[in-house]
């Protein structure tokens, strides 16, 4: 295109998602505020929260995180695999996943994955984006409830088993809805501004009440319970980024 | 504008051989072919299968034969193609479904050239230093995104699927000419074999197909020469 004749099209794109799955320094997934490890489950990178980036990951620190903690998680997982026994995969374990897949494949509902996902993306962008307010987040809580309800009525064209990317997109939409729910409820709950969480109705950082990690637990659609974990500060005190 | 999109489709569960399907899609001239495929998949026929991830030419997952040329769907604009667009899977690899091919033979060739630093010397106290000139020597190959556009546009590869192919040679070049690497002899075993570099007939299809503008044929020739001079 010729920028002398037409405007250059510009649009924002996702650069980084500040994960959330709490882990130990060895990448082992932690499930509560007492640092209870889920044996054999590991996370590293964007998906994980080793708690080294503070409340806002700074430029270039992601790749450093990957190299160090990806390696550590790999080493630990290899050790674990060497000593662990195989578990039998029973119908009890498989049943839930199988049911979830069959439900989507057999559904005759009228909702479409792409349309629902577009609504989710647009509303999250409008209501839970960079600058947040209690009012907008509350609005998004209600929108998510509605979208989750409609998600139960999605159906797909592809009923096959080989490279069914439509089924994958349908399953992923379900996870996106759950992650959105954890994000929005936690953001609404956190009545302060810190790092990448900027509440226009609570512009100040509030160390007295909020210098802690949020652990979000799904109770049911639309209902999230919270627990908290202290932040290990070590040598570094939290400071305002003033440059 | 209205675009007629013809896609060569294949469903292993239903079809004996690939079949053409035609779709009418409303598009902007600045839309990418990937946008058109999404419009079909999301709003017309959800069963259409293709690979893509990054959407901006860096992951290498959406190489396709578009209007007769291998290109990345995410980097090819509608305005450069016109209102009739054909899309087929890249050639020479078994089709799994629609535009998805089995990449395993491609990656087997990649693994065969040992695409990682080989150096058993004890590591120095700090990093293995390299001058800017030494770094520049293998710069072109570092730009490869393993999209397979080159290998699957190569007539030698179409006829003889065991040919290691341009992409693997580009990857080998990246290490052979790296001053820190000591593994060239190990790589020459695969590269100098009957399915290695000597199969290349310098057709230049690879260089034309590469979305990263790597001078693929030139790098292949440099590897040929390195093997030749190494034997004296
Ligand atoms: C344009 C851009 C520039 C950047 N520049 C920098 C930089 O200069 N410095 C820096 O430090 N960081 C940078 N970042 C951030 C950094 O690159 C990323 O944070 C980092 O690569 C993330 O790595 P990851 O392994 O956590 O996640 P990813 O690399 O996203 O890996 C996730 C993997 O999971 C796979 N996956 C997804 N779903 C499934 C599933 N259901 N089953 C199996 N597999 C699945 C995906 O295919 C993918 O391979 C940049 C990011 C972007 C987008
Ligand atoms: S050399 Fe170019 S065409 Fe070949 S795999 Fe690498 S990026 Fe793709
Ligand atoms: S989608 Fe990643 S290169 Fe095109």
TrEMBL record, chain B:
Gene Ontology MF terms in the entry: 2 iron, 2 sulfur cluster binding; 3 iron, 4 sulfur cluster binding; 4 iron, 4 sulfur cluster binding; electron transfer activity; metal ion binding; succinate dehydrogenase (quinone) activity
Gene3D superfamilies: 3.10.20.30, Alpha-helical ferredoxin
Residue span(s) of domain 2Fe-2S ferredoxin-type: 1-91
Keywords: 2Fe-2S, 3Fe-4S, 4Fe-4S, Iron, Iron-sulfur, Metal-binding, Oxidoreductase, Tricarboxylic acid cycle
The keyword Repeat is annotated on this UniProt entry: no
CDD domains: fer2
GO process terms (BP): respiratory electron transport chain; tricarboxylic acid cycle
InterPro entries: 2Fe-2S_ferredoxin-like_sf, 2Fe-2S_ferredoxin-type, 4Fe4S_Fe-S-bd, 4Fe4S_Fe_S_CS, Beta-grasp_dom_sf, Helical_ferredxn, SDH/FRD_Iron-Sulfur, Succ_DH/fum_Rdtase_Fe-S
UniProt catalytic activity: a quinone + succinate = fumarate + a quinol
Enzyme class of the recorded protein, top EC level: oxidoreductase
Recorded metabolic or biological pathway in which this protein acts: Carbohydrate metabolism; tricarboxylic acid cycle
Claim: RNA-binding is one of the keywords in the record: no
Annotated family: Belongs to the succinate dehydrogenase/fumarate reductase iron-sulfur protein family.
UniProt name for this protein: Succinate dehydrogenase iron-sulfur subunit
Organism: Thermus parvatiensis
Organism lineage string: Bacteria, Thermotogati, Deinococcota, Deinococci, Thermales
């Amino acid at each position: 295109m010729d920028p002398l004749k037409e405007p250059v099209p510009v649009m924002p794109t996702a650069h980084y998602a500040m994960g959330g799955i709490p882990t130990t320094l060895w990448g082992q997934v932690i499930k509560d505020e007492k640092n209870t490890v889920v044996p054999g489950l590991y996370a590293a990178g964007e998906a994980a929260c080793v708690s080294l980036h503070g409340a806002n990951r700074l430029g270039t620190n992601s790749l450093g995180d990957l190299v160090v903690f990806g390696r550590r998680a790999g080493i630990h997982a290899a050790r674990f695999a060497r000593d662990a026994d195989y578990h039998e995969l029973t119908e009890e374990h498989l049943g839930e996943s199988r049911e979830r897949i069959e439900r989507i494949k057999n559904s005759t509902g009228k909702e479409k994955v792409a349309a629902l996902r577009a609504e989710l993306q647009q509303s999250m962008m409008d209501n839970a984006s960079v600058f947040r307010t209690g009012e907008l987040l509350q609005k998004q809580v209600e929108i998510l409830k509605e979208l989750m309800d409609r998600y139960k009525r999605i159906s797909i064209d592809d009923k096959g088993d080989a490279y069914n990317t439509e089924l994958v997109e349908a399953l992923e939409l379900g996870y996106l809805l759950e992650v959105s729910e954890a994000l929005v409820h936690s953001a609404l709950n956190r009545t302060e501004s810190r790092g990448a969480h900027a509440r226009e109705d609570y512009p100040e950082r509030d160390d007295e009440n909020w210098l802690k990690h949020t652990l979000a637990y799904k109770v049911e659609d639309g209902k999230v319970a919270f627990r908290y974990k202290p932040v290990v500060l070590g040598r570094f005190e939290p400071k305002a980024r003033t440059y | 504008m209205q675009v007629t999109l013809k896609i060569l489709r294949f469903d292993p569960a239903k079809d004996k051989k690939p079949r053409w399907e035609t779709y009418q899609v409303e598009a902007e001239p600045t839309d990418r072919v990937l946008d058109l495929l999404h419009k079909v998949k999301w709003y017309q026929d959800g069963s259409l299968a293709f690979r893509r991830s990054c959407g901006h030419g860096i992951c290498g997952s959406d190489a396709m034969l578009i209007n007769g040329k291998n290109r990345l769907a995410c980097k090819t604009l509608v305005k450069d193609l016109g209102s009739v667009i054909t899309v087929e899977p890249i050639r020479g690899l078994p089709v799994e479904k629609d535009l998805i091919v089995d990449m395993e033979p491609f990656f087997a060739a990649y693994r065969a050239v040992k695409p990682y630093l080989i150096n058993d010397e004890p590591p120095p106290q700090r990093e293995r230093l390299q001058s800017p000139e030494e770094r520049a020597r293998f710069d072109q190959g570092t730009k490869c995104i393993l999209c397979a556009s080159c290998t699957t546009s190569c007539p030698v590869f179409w006829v003889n699927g065991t040919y290691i192919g341009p992409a693997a040679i580009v990857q080998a070049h990246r290490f052979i000419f790296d001053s820190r690497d000591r593994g060239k002899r190990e790589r020459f075993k695969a590269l100098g074999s009957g399915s290695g570099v000597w199969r290349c007939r310098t057709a230049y299809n690879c260089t034309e197909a590469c979305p990263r503008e790597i001078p693929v044929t030139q790098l292949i020739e440099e590897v040929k020469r390195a093997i030749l001079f190494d034997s004296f």
